[in-house]
Amino acid sequence: MNIKQFEYKPLSHYSYAIVSEGKMAVIDPERDPSQYYQYAEDSGATIVAVFETHPHADFISSHLQILQETGATIYNSEKTGADYPHQSFDEGDTLQLGKIEISALNTPGHSPDSITIVAKDGNATALFTGDTIFIGDVGRPDLRESAGNLKSKRQDLAEAMYNTVTTKFKNLPDAALIFPAHGAGSLCGKSMSDANSSTLGNERMGNWAFKEQTKEEFVNVLLENQPFIPSYFGYDVEMNKTGAENLRKSISEIPFKLNSSIDDKNVIVDIRDEAIYKKGHVSGSFNIQATSANSKFETWLGAIVKPNEDFHIVIESSSDLEGILNRVSKIGYEKSLKSVITLNEAEIEKTDILDLDHFKNHPEEYTIIDIRNKSEVEEGKFFKNALSHPLNDLRNSFDEIPSAKPIVVHCAGGYRSAAGSSILENKFENTKVFDLGEAVKEFQD
Hints:
Elements: E1 2-8, E2 13-20, E3 23-27, H1 34-43, E4 46-51, H2 63-70, E5 73-76, E6 87-88, E7 94-97, E8 100-106, E9 115-121, E10 124-130, E11 133-134, E12 137-138, H3 154-168, E13 177-180, E14 198-199, H4 200-206, H5 215-223, H6 233-242, H7 247-252, E15 256-260, E16 267-270, H8 274-279, E17 285-287, H9 297-304, E18 311-314, H10 321-329, E19 337-343, H11 356-361, E20 367-370, H12 374-378, E21 387-388, H13 394-397, E22 407-410, H14 415-427, E23 433-435
Parallel strand pairs: 3-4, 4-5, 5-6, 10-13, 15-19, 16-17, 16-18, 18-19, 20-21, 20-22, 22-23
Antiparallel strand pairs: 1-2, 2-3, 7-8, 8-9, 9-10, 11-12, 13-14
């Protein structure tokens, strides 16, 4: 069985291609389908099928574009209620892809409409589990209470996941390969392994969800300490249910201006390195860095900027344009992007830099804001008097922050605090706001 795994690291997303006898199927594709086209050409194969294990919450899929550009059939569960041309694919349905027999298991738990794709080639079995079974974990059950064709409470989905884990895979061999849609770093689960694949036998031995336990015990573990839900998740579920617009067309409509200024009141996202940002930026802008290919830019853009909230982006150079348009489109936010600009240096503000020695010697003279996630704070504070204001909610909770003292913002490594301090810098006109940045590591045990 010829299986190719594709990884998009910023969203910890895995997608797949299966090829047999000149035919190719794509599973859970990301927004840009070009890599699947290239792989089909390199393999001398024709894309005939696209499988969606469920309407994804954390990224936009290119399933509709692939249908339009290749003629491939989209397969998903009838329960999805998809608004695009598709073929329902549930338990009992099969598809022959060359020598490979492909079938479906209905595996609700992460969502009511989740399916697992089962591919068999002779004695070899591969399971494309979507967000149902991860390596070392299972998908979170709390993302479909307000989005999608089928809305379900987290308790109901957690119980459905218990039934899925205990009944749906029992007749499959230990040697069956497991290929999930996400790995460590994704917000679709809480304790995923760094491994990008496994076997069903290994998961039966090492995945907490497969151990002997009551339904109540399983549900309690699954529901506790799930990570925050970014604002854009429900938006992406709905867009994936409808099918996203062709990527090339969608991003081609966004204006780009060199050495420009912004004259409206919309949000401004400055993606440059925090050191460059602090030397000069547009008043009111948020510093969500996209300088690293692996940074979690998409996650924090979709957590800080709300769906359908118009915004602009500031880049360092015109050479950054194509890359940032593709990154914004990964979560479907290009529709709200009003322009991309490079800065007119006549209209910039500077950020004050923290006197680290003074802060170390006199921390009581500052209001310290911890913008890490709630679960991180519960594992331990770096500063005993720090106030917890998670970054994903900071634009809503800033008015609860005391402003009598200078404010120092920290996270765990410096990336998030650059964004958090820039948000607060724009909210407090008469209070100094400092970013502790990477220096936070000096205060960790």
